Amino acid sequence: MESTDQLLVGLASIIVVGIAAQWLAWRARLPSILLLLVCGLLAGPVTGFLDPDEFLGELLFPLVSLSVAVILFEGGLGLNLAELRSIRPVLVRLMTVGVLATLVLSALLAHWVTQLSWPVAILFGAIMTITGPTVIGPLLRHVRPRGQVGPVAKWEGIVADVIGATLAVLVFHAILGERSIQSTTTAAWGLVRTVLVGGGFGVLGTVMIAQPLRRHWIPDALHSPATLAVVLAIFTIAQNLQPESGLLAVTLMGFLIANQKAVPKRHIIEFKENLRVLLISSLFIVLPARLTAEDMQVLDLRGVLFVIALILV
User: Fold this and answer.
1) Cβ atoms of 137 and 276 closer than 8 Å
2) What is the model's pTM?
3) Backbone dihedral region for residue 144 (phi beyond 0: left; psi -120 to 50: alpha; all else: beta)
4) What is the rounded CA–CA span in Å between residue 284 and residue 175?
5) Of 16 and 302, the one with more pLDDT
């Protein structure tokens, strides 16, 4: 009973603190992600009130993964094909030259400033290519940029999340393979499998949602729940078949459904927008709350300089 009560208090606290931080950010006209991180740190390592690892246990990472899947799907729903035509050259450069530059510069800084070994530094550089809608989305809603900056940042946040996550996994497996020819082949085949599995299940999920909605086989009240169920199922199956392919699958699902003219999407979009706020609020409370006081003490002057260098780069 004690563990059940602890889980109940923990889950309720995450939601309450997250939404309260969102409201405070709105009142103070600050980026919500800033106050969410601060509240997460206060609830976790500073006061010790919240310990997600303790009360969630093995459920923590599956819940985070499913939350990210829903957020990426919702982000995909916001990708308009008409926007892509006008920003495609810029987006292609960001996803090629930009990703490569981020990886290389981050790896160099990690090696030179923090003295990480080259393999670990390169892995860190691959991870740093990830931006993601969990960060970009709230910032765009706060800043509200004009012109093509908003669409470019929105597309970059979604696409880079999938590319960066896949790249990080491939680099990790290449490092484990000790840079042999076999490990390089395995990494390349892993990329192909990720694209095939993610793309295939993304199309399959789109058909599973679009056809019933188009033919009115699902009542309006079940549009959002049915879509959510398919998103979670597609993500889980794809992810189990090939790591990180689930991210591609749900992002592609969102994009394809959003650009289906004959599919009623109003209920889905409204529900996913509300769910996104709840999930982002919870994630950015949980993740910083996982830090410990010992983790905070590790951050020395060299670490601060490294963070500043990353921001400037």
Assistant:
1) yes
2) 0.83
3) left
4) 30
5) 16
